[in-house]
């Protein structure tokens, strides 16, 4: 069971936001949701999360745009990028911008996303960030 880690999730799909909210809350996490990149930036500005999950394709500002605002060397939290597309170009851009992991929605389950989050949180604790 997870401790009460704080997670910001930016996802424009309302159904997926609700699924993430339920699954992560049931697993013991505190969840703050955003519908687009601008909302995600506002949530992070209020309080840095323990981990952030950004959908690549969102209105107003996409996940890459949010990631650009929080470069790896200036943030204290890991980032997972969500996408419906497993193309190498997007993956490479995410890694280049400092994404810690990449989750292709069509290829994985919510349970595997939870495992990914738990793994990154353990690594974060180990490295003392």
Describe the model.
This protein is of the alpha/beta class. It has a single domain, classed as Rossmann fold, CATH 3.40.50. It is built from five helices and five strands. It has a five-stranded parallel beta sheet with strand order 2-1-3-4-5, sandwiched between helices. It is globular, with a radius of gyration of 13 Å. The chain starts with 5 loop residues before the first strand and ends with a helix.
Short description:
The chain has helices at residues 14-26, 37-46, 63-69, 88-96, 110-127, and strands at residues 6-10, 30-34, 51-55, 79-83, 101-104. It is α/β, with parallel strands linked by helices and 129 residues long. The two termini are 21 Å apart.
Kindly list the characteristics that best describe this protein.
globular, five-stranded parallel beta sheet, alpha/beta
Number of helices: 5
Tell me, briefly, the overall form: globular
Q: How much helical structure, as a percent, in the residues?
A: 40-55%
Q: Class in CATH? A: Alpha Beta
Low-confidence stretches: none
Strand order across the largest sheet: 2-1-3-4-5
Task: Tell me the layout of helices and strands.
Elements: E1 6-10, H1 14-26, E2 30-34, H2 37-46, E3 51-55, H3 63-69, E4 79-83, H4 88-96, E5 101-104, H5 110-127
Parallel strand pairs: 1-2, 1-3, 3-4, 4-5
Helix pairs in contact: 2-3
């Amino acid at each position: 069971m997870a401790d009460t880690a704080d997670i910001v999730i930016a996802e424009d799909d309302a159904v997926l936001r609700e699924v993430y909210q339920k699954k992560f809350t049931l697993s013991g996490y505190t969840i703050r949701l955003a519908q687009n990149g601008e909302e995600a930036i506002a949530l992070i500005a209020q309080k840095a999360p323990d981990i952030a999950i950004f959908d690549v394709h969102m209105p107003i500002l996409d996940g890459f745009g949010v990631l650009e605002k929080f470069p790896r060397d200036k943030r204290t939290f890991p980032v997972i990028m969500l996408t419906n597309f497993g193309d190498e170009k997007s993956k490479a851009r995410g890694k280049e911008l400092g994404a810690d992991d990449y989750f292709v929605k069509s290829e994985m389950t919510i349970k595997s996303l939870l495992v990914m989050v738990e793994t990154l949180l353990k690594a974060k604790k180990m490295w003392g960030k």
